[in-house]
Structures are given as C-alpha cells and as structure tokens.
Design a protein that fits this description.
The protein has helices at residues 49-62, 79-87, 102-109, 123-128, 156-164, 183-196, 206-209, 228-237, 247-254; strands at residues 3-6, 13-18, 25-30, 33-39, 69-73, 92-97, 117-120, 136-144, 166-178, 201-205, 215-222, 242-246. It is of the alpha/beta class and 256 residues long. The chain has a single domain, classed as Vaccinia Virus protein VP39 (Rossmann fold), CATH 3.40.50. Helix 1 runs antiparallel to helix 8 and helix 5 crosses helix 6 (183-196).
C-alpha cells in the first residue's frame, strides 16, 4: 500500500506505506514523521510500547465493566480505536482531528466497520462546542509529540474540559512524548496533576522517566480512582522495563 494526501490546514503531506517491521503493517507518516502503525489483519496487535501501556491501563481500569463509548482527541491512523473495537465490539467511538482530510483518507485505505463518528475541529474548541454536554466512558488525548504542541492544548483549562467529558465511571488517558531531559513532559504532567489530582498515574520506560532517553509517557486518571490492585495489574502488564508513578512520587517527578 502506498497512498498520500496533502492536509489543507497544515500543508503537510500524510502518507501511508508498508512497515518493514511486520508482515502486514502500515505506517502513517505526516510531514515525514511517523505517527502510527496499523497491523492490517490483526487489530489486537499493537507494535509500539506506548500504545501497549495505554491498553494495560484501559483493561485494568475497566476490569469486568465494559465502556460504552470513547472519545479520541487526535486521530492518527486510528490504531487505538481499532483495538478498542476488537476488544469491545459495538463500542461507540468519536474521533476529533484538526485536519479535514485525515480521517477520511485513513478510512479510505484502512477501513473500520463501523466507522467512528468524525469531528473536524480543534480539540479544545470541540470539547466546549460540538461535544458540549456529552459524557464518555473513555477519553483519550493523543496530541503531544514534543514541546512544539500548541500552547492552548497544554493548559489547565484544556484538561479541565477533558475531565468534564469523562463519565462518572470513566477514564482519561493521555499519551505524550518528549526529548531526553523531559522538561516539557514534567511541565505538562504538573499541569495535568493540578487538575486531575495526585491519584493520577504516570507510566513510562525507566530510561524515559530518568530523562536519559526521548520517548512516550502515558498519564491516566480514573473518575473513581485506581485501586492498588489495579495499579499492580497495570505495572505487571508492562511492557517492561517500566515504572508507574502516583501520589508523592508523581508530584516529586514533576519537580513541583
């Protein structure tokens, strides 16, 4: 598979092409930077560590309960929505992306059945306009690759609006990346914890948390909190080497 489209708002080129790492993998690249991997014949296969951490948090967070709907801020190649659909068939999903062409382009070449609801908007605006009054059992924020993230998407107000969309039994999961040193990640985590409280969890590879390597981190908050048993399940599910921070350890890591 080889396909591309010019994204009208950023002007960047979105491309789909085979991933040499797996037999039936496809990569989405935007502006020359790889964004997502989709295993075409197996949505249960998640290649990258960060999305496997998200899976660990989601499955432990819900346990025997089944989420009824999910909101995704940031589309990519819809890797996580595909896994969620495989895990919980019938789950209603809404995807928000700023680029008008992206979701349609991805679904044209990598279909999903049923398709998620697609909202074309800035994530912050969508939360208080098109999605106002809605509640979701799962809210996923996947917008930050580095400190180049738009400033209005890194504020306490933005995360307050994300939390407002989470149902009383729901879960908020945020994926974000940073360069070695983790200066942006620490600032962003401090902002999120100021909204979500010290019961939030941060999961990442040990070398990333230590600041010695670039990489992705996953922060999560549950409306009802995470029990110690759930935290143990999340850590045990890995991938490893991995650390899970919460409470005083999490606050200390941010340097607040």
């Amino acid at each position: 598979m080889q396909a591309s489209v010019r994204l009208s708002r950023s002007g960047q080129l979105a491309e789909l092409f085979p991933d040499a790492l797996t037999r039936n993998g496809v990569v989405l690249s935007i502006g020359g930077a790889e964004q997502s991997h989709v295993e075409v014949d197996d949505p249960s296969f998640l290649l990258h560590d960060y999305i496997r951490r998200m899976r660990s948090i989601i499955t432990a967070g819900f346990g025997d309960e089944c989420p009824s709907n999910a909101l995704h801020l940031g589309a990519g190649a819809l890797t996580l929505p595909r896994w969620l659909q495989h895990w919980q068939p019938g789950l209603a999903q809404t995807v928000v992306d700023y680029e008008p062409e992206l979701v349609q382009f991805v679904l044209q070449h990598l279909p999903m059945h049923p398709k998620p609801e697609s909202v074309v908007d800035d994530a912050a605006a969508a939360l208080i306009e098109q999605l106002a009054g809605r509640a979701y059992d799962l809210v996923v924020v996947d917008l930050f690759n580095s400190d180049q993230a738009p400033g209005h998407l890194t504020t306490a107000e933005f995360f307050e609006n994300c939390l407002a969309r989470v149902s009383p039994r729901g879960l908020l999961v945020v994926n974000f990346g940073d360069d070695a040193g983790m200066r942006f990640a620490r600032r962003l985590t401090s902002t999120m914890v100021s909204v979500l409280g010290p019961g939030a969890l941060l999961a990442a590879p040990d070398d990333v948390l230590g600041g010695g390597s670039e990489g992705n981190l996953v922060l999560a908050a549950a409306a009802r909190g995470f029990s110690q048993g759930q935290q143990n399940m999340i850590w045990a599910a890995g991938p490893h080497p991995d650390s899970l921070l919460s409470g005083d350890e999490l606050i200390a890591w941010t340097g607040s």
